[in-house]
Amino acid sequence: MAANLHIAITPETLFTIGGFEVTNTLFTSYLVTIALTIFLLSVRSKIKPTTRPKGIQNILEAIVGGLYSFFQSITHSTQKTQAFTPVIAGFFIFIMLNNWVELLPGFHTILYTGHAEIKLSQIPSVPWQNAAPALAVTNIDEDEVNSDLLANEEISHSNQDSVETESAEEKHGGVPIFRGANADINMTVALALISVGAIQYYGLKFAGKGYLKKYINFSSPIMFFVGILEFVSELSKILSFAFRLFGNIFAGEVLIAVITFLIPVILPIPFIGLEIFVGFIQALVFAMLSLVFFTMATETHH
Amino acid sequence: MLENLPPVIAISIGGIGPAIAIGMIVKSALEAIGRNPEAGSQIQTAMILGVAFAEAIAIYSLVVALIVKFV
Q1: Which of A8, A9, A285 faces B48 most closely, judged by CB atoms?
Q2: Which of A67, A65, A73, A98 minimizes the C-alpha distance to A190?
Q3: Does the beta carbon of B66 lie under 8 angstroms from any beta carbon of chain A?
């Protein structure tokens, strides 16, 4: 059964830019970011100040207004809501889109065989590979165009050979180009670090130096140890944020892969519906927990 | 077949606690909504938060099971 079932817990490298490995999850998250940015900027340019918005402006105003009043019901403070809404709504929309986008057709099925470095080498003007210059220089006197083509073919062949022997992904026939970004532990840890960092930032901003008394407090020995416990609980927040999101989305990915492998027709449909729901709930949980922690950190009295 | 046993044990034991916890959370939330339907949306928000916390434990054991199985 495990012969054709391709499940990778770590993201797979698509290509490298100067030693920086661009993985399929990173690639997908960039695509989501770019698509979201372009869409929102294009809508923003069309927005008109009116009391009766129409079409896409109406939908987006409903979303933003709904999120704002929902956050207001948790923070009970207009000042805090206005400060937190961009961060929290950004978390919510970005995570939800990343969860939903991996359910699109083409994810996990479009495979990418070989390395993009081979394609780069076919551009004649890019002297990117150090292994080839001897060949290129000797042939340059005869006929430039032909030699370039020849040399590049040589390079691509040699590269293909080396890639086929080196990379383990080739055994599976390639790596998926698209993969949901939250199925990558690096992504969720990054989001958790941003969230917990923002908790400290807003705590210091709203409660001032009193916020630090949560961690360092010499008023009594008990409070001192409570401060240490508070510090440990901040660390556990990072772990809990990261693993909750990662576990849910990765488990959904595995679930759909296994179900599709067993019975490819009709049966995966309810599970895809379940994953749409889970993606929404997990984005909501991440945003709401961040908001609750923000609100708790910014309360001045204890 | 025996090499599948560790992840199976991990997820099956790890699922017991969160299952009981989520059942109790939803039970009390439903009772509260039944007693006070006006506070339904607030109770629902708190319930989802609690369920997410309880579910996180199951997800931890799921991650452990997946790592044992696939890594």
Answers
A1: A285
A2: A98
A3: yes
The ipTM is 0.72
What is the SS3 assignment for A112?
strand
Q: Alpha-carbon distance A44 to A36, whole Å?
A: 12
A289: nearest CB among B49, B63, B71: B49
Rounded to a whole number, what is the distance in Å from the CA of A138 to chain B's nearest CA? 48
The most distant pair of C-alpha atoms in chain B lies apart, rounded to whole Å, by 53
Of A246, A251, A285, the CB nearest to B52: A285
Q: pLDDT 10s digit of each residue in chain A, 302 long?
A: 444 667 777 888 888 888 888 888 999 999 999 999 999 999 988 888 888 888 888 899 999 999 999 999 888 889 999 999 999 999 999 999 999 998 888 887 788 776 544 444 444 444 444 444 444 443 444 444 444 444 455 444 444 444 433 444 444 567 888 888 888 889 999 999 999 999 999 999 988 888 888 888 888 888 899 999 999 989 988 988 998 899 889 888 888 888 888 888 888 899 999 899 889 989 998 999 999 999 988 887 65
Å from B71 to nearest chain A CA? Answer: 7
| Number of DSSP helices (H) and strands (E) in chain A, helices first | 9, 4
Question: At the fourth CATH level, which superfamily is domain B2-70?
Answer: F1F0 ATP synthase subunit C (1.20.20.10)
Domain boundaries, chain B: 2-70
Are A12 and A175 contacting, i.e. CB atoms less than 8 angstroms apart? yes
| Chain A residues touching chain B at CB-CB below 8 Å | 7-9, 73-74, 240, 243-244, 246-248, 250-251, 254, 281, 284-285, 288-289, 292
pTM to 2 decimals?
0.76
Residue B26 near chain A (CB below 8 Å): no
Q: Chain B contacts of A7, Cβ < 8 Å?
A: 70
Q: Is A20 helix (H, G, I), strand (E, B) or coil?
A: strand
